[in-house]
Structure prediction request, 984 residues.
Amino acid sequence: MHYRFDDFEIDLPKRELRHEAAPVSIKPKDLDVLAYLIRCRDRFATKDELLDQFWPELETFEAVLTSTVSRLRRILGADAIRSIRPCSYRFTRSVNEVVPPPLSTAESVRAPSTADFVGRNNDLARLREAIDTACQGSGGVFLIAGDAGVGKSRLMEEATRYARARGVEALIARAGDENSQIPYYLWKRTLADYAAGRPQTANTGAPSRDAELDWSALESSAPISAGSDSRLAFFEAVSSAFLRAAAAAPLVTAFDDLHAADVASLQLLCFITRRCARTRLLIIGTLRDVEPGTPQPVVTGLATLRRDPRCAFHLLAPFTQSESIDYLEHLGGGVTAGAQAAILASAEGNPFLLRECWRRARDSDGDKSEAAHQPGSDVVADLFGPRLARLSPVCSAVLSVAAACGRELDATLAQRSSGYSPSEFADAIDEARRARFIVAVRGRSTQLRFSHQLVRDFIYERCPAELRRQVHRRAAEILEAECGDDPGERLAELAVHWEGAIDEGCAERAIERIQELSDWMGNRLGFEDAIGQLERCLALIDRYRPSWEARRWQIYLLLAYLYQRLGDQVAADRALDRMRQTLGPQSPPAGGRSGSALRLFATLELGVELPRDIATGEIDRPVLPPPQQRASIVGLRMATNGLERARRHGDAAIVASELAQICWRIQDVCSAERLAQSAELLALARAGRDRDFEQEARLLRVHYLLVSGDIGGVDAEIAAFGAALTQTPDPLYLWLHKTLLAMRTHLEGRFAESEAYVYEAAAAGVGLPSALTERTMSMQLFAIRTSQGNTAELLPILEMILAISQTHQSALRGAIAAALCELERFDEARAHLGILSANRFRAVFDSPVTWFATAVGLARVCDRLAARREAAVLYAAILPYASTCVASPLPLNCYGATAGYLALLAGAMGQKHKAASHFDAALATNQRLRAWPAVAHTQFEYARLLLRGTRTPRARGRHLLRQARITAVDLEMSGLVKWIDAVG
Prediction:
């Protein structure tokens, strides 16, 4: 094959690069890399892809690739190869293929292969044939099954190298660690790798339209419903994305260790299998024979795949005797005939065991006894037990910790869990690598992995049970501290570690985290995986907390929801029957069980919105921008259906539980319906004489009344909350009462009194979790400074928290941007706004707890920076809540009428008439609230708008400015007074 570009020509048969017909000196490997980049010139080739293709035998070799690219740029020109982060490369020149590639000949697609890949020629030939057939439009699924260590993964990797050598894009995703239990992990990882290699448009830097494969966008593309139709639409969206990609160019997707994959990924694979027969998409999967402990949904999914006629199933057999001998020769031989015979008898044709037995025999100078194992014993234990015993005590301990963290592990987490210093840990890892227990993950400086899953399993099982529990607990506590209140995808890791650490002392935390993981999975359409987690919860409750009847029947109720969403009404009814059996023949009073249910659901910080009318497409209730919209809408419909069932059942405890679930999980900004439900919840609490439950119901009512602007109702509920403290003197409610008083006095502008209540609340909450009380205190103090117009005073603290915090990054960045605008440091504020506005404010809208407060807080930033485009996005998101007030959950703070922030955004968009209308509405609402600081701010912002108009608006603007100054001076809002004087 010949390639021509500029004045260069590549002659692959002669292995030459010529410039103006004169040969150019180039290293053979550099020429191979150049030819590969030319074949893949329509996309970016990632660093890992190139390293796997040309240096597969090395653990880490990034420097070699960088040097190769640098040499090619010196020859061809600096702009001939373009790079993007993370270290992906693309050939940019226009290329003319002089001779089309003969796709069926092996010479034109010579794939790099390592020296020890032997004995699988027929197996690889079948895979190459499948790849060639897929390139011609007959794709499908190719499964490789076999025992552990038989070479499934290696065969799959050689097949992907062959595909890439042909210019076919090949992607690999692996199951088997904690993160791979995330719903649709394999597909999500594959799409991320595919999108990372797409070229980007010159103007916007965004991926081209034919490669829009954003996972969150796919999740939000399907119609929303509470049934299984939502997942069917999601499957259609994902499969269509892959088929569109394969229509543009042949695509090979490889999934390793399908037996350890999440159930959702397997269900999606079964669905796509039915659609890829006449496409250029080939899916390769490896799996072991199903073991006794494999979850039944995984067994069912794999069996469904094997039965599908579009799926080719290939059982990878062990090496024959002759193949085993050839393999040993390729490894280097060097053992006696007796040792070789012992190796062959011990390994039984398993390549992994052959290699390890050969290494042991070679290290012992070919001793036959060292090459064999005792009859009836475990060959893995015979191989690795003595080697493990020769390690230092520190190295053995570190390996035990690493095994508890999974086959592929975060070295930083493992080091902190081990208790050793970084230098001691690094020395131990170096020793483990020399002993071939651990290898580095190429391209990830903090990632390590065991050389084989069998090695990791052996070390983990050898570790004493008590030590395993201690390691898991340390890892869980470290992750808890790192992740804070929003662990996201790391919930899977947390659940694994808490379950591994479980004993009487931490059973509650383990059960809570596993149940949170189930809820997280269900909200991402991973229903079978969510059901599996709930079954784990039930097993742990039966073992460690058999008296938790309330939690048990709540889990049965959640199981019924999930089975309903799968369309399995029989299983749903069975779960409801189990729930009724738990409750017993007599219905309990409302208080005893519903209070526990309320506390259960109060821990779940989910989205808060109501659905779009699916039939008409019109918004009849507020809608949160995707992707958070989907989970909250489905959650609302599930909870509503559950409430209807509970009413039909006639059990007051179940009705109360369902009401509590709706009121806590679906804290609507528009709350008329929720007000009625919270009133019913309060009545049930009184009927059951549950004082704790009654206080929590009042707390909910304060939030809903505040959002709706009913300040009289708020005052009545706060007074009743305080009066009940004589009967429920719990420290939690004492702290909450002081917090409510701080919010209420701040709302009226009594700042000194409000700040005093903030510190009184901190004193009352000494025995409560410090993370909760300290965060609450900081949020309320920040609200006070914001109302005074002195946010800039807190700028250094905000910047410090942003640098060290792992959570609520968007909210912190928004507050910093507002403070920078106060100081007129507009360039820095614009930089923060640019980060937040990326992908249409995805980072802001992805936060279910803080998105609304962050969005309205950015309104003043958009106004100061005249950010028209950003203001338009925020305006559309906030507009459905125009008639409400801005209140944070619990509630901690109230920031006045939402209409005032809409007015700022409309002004930034240049829509002055719309802004004036919103300002008028905001003034009326804030005056009704008696929120005098908010009134002063609204008057000031309204005046700024009017002073840019004609004579009549300017006169009203000056009048509003005078009123704002009088209020600001009276309330000692010094920052606002400075702003007013600067304008006036």
About this structure: The mean pLDDT is 79. Residues 931-984 form one domain.
